[in-house]
From TrEMBL:
This protein's record includes keyword Signal: no
InterPro entries tied to this protein: RTX_toxin-activating_protC_bac (IPR003996)
GO cellular component terms attached to this protein's record: cytoplasm
UniProt-listed GO biological process terms: killing of cells of another organism; toxin metabolic process
Keyword DNA repair: no
Protein's recorded name: RTX toxin-activating lysine-acyltransferase
Keywords: Acyltransferase, Cytolysis, Cytoplasm, Transferase
Location of region: Disordered: 1-47
Cited function: Involved in fatty acylation of protoxin at internal lysine residues, thereby converting it to the active toxin.
Taxon lineage: Bacteria, Pseudomonadati, Pseudomonadota, Alphaproteobacteria, Hyphomicrobiales
Polar residues: compositionally biased ranges: 1-16
Pfam families assigned to the protein according to its UniProt record, in alphabetical order: HlyC (PF02794)
Enzyme Commission number: 2.3.1.-
Main location class: cytoplasm
């Protein structure tokens, strides 16, 4: 992930044009495989296997899209391949990396527009995050179990090609995930989105770390 990759998206072009940009779909897609699959009749084994295969393929594709997005962000270009495990895979599997998609203007196909990185942590992990921020560590490094270890909500990053797109994504994701909650905001986010939207995060407003 050390090489720079210049990418532009239909979503970025939409935010800069006079036309109304395509709507964003915020949030992770649900895994089509449910716990009841394990109790399925033997005759349904093939269908269950197919559903699992489709789920794995969809997750792998989403992971690739997120990695491609990170490659366009200067703040992530120094990261090594081995960092994807704790930086992307762990939060993605725990529903703490909310992705937003938009329809391409020409094809109509959904494409990744950006992502919002969050964590719901314990008091101990909260202290660790604050210490890393004070030390200038970025991105914040968490263990797999840390991402959903408690009820303290952190907004760690908003990843998008432009500030307008980042602002739209955060606005939509916050309505779905942060309504009425106190949200602690990583200082880096302040420069990525409009201040008015940032103040609205968490209902009555997010709290800067």
């Amino acid at each position: 992930m050390s090489e720079s990759t210049n990418r532009t998206t239909e979503s970025a072009n939409a935010s800069n044009g006079a036309d109304k940009p395509p709507p964003l779909d915020a949030g992770l897609e649900a895994d089509p495989v449910t716990e009841t699959d394990a109790d399925s009749a033997p005759g349904d084994a093939a269908a269950v296997a197919e559903k699992r295969s489709e789920a794995v393929a969809a997750f792998t594709a989403r992971l690739g899209e997120v990695v491609a997005l990170l490659m366009t962000m200067p703040r992530y270009r120094h990261m090594a391949l081995q960092d994807l495990d704790w930086m992307v895979l762990a939060p993605l599997m725990r529903d703490q990396l909310a992705v937003a998609t938009a329809n391409a203007r020409e094809s109509g196909a959904k494409q990744l527009a950006g992502a919002v990185l969050t964590a719901r942590v314990s008091e101990a992990v909260d202290v660790s995050i604050r210490e890393q921020i004070k030390a200038g560590v970025f991105p914040v490094r968490l263990k797999p179990g840390d991402w959903t270890s408690g009820e303290i909500v952190w907004l760690l990053d908003v990843i998008a090609p432009t500030k307008p797109i980042a602002t739209r994504i955060l606005s939509e994701v916050s309505r779905a995930r942060f309504k009425g909650q106190k949200v602690l905001v990583h200082p880096i986010v302040a420069g990525l989105v409009d201040k008015d939207v940032l103040r609205k995060v968490g209902g009555e407003g997010g709290e800067a770390a």
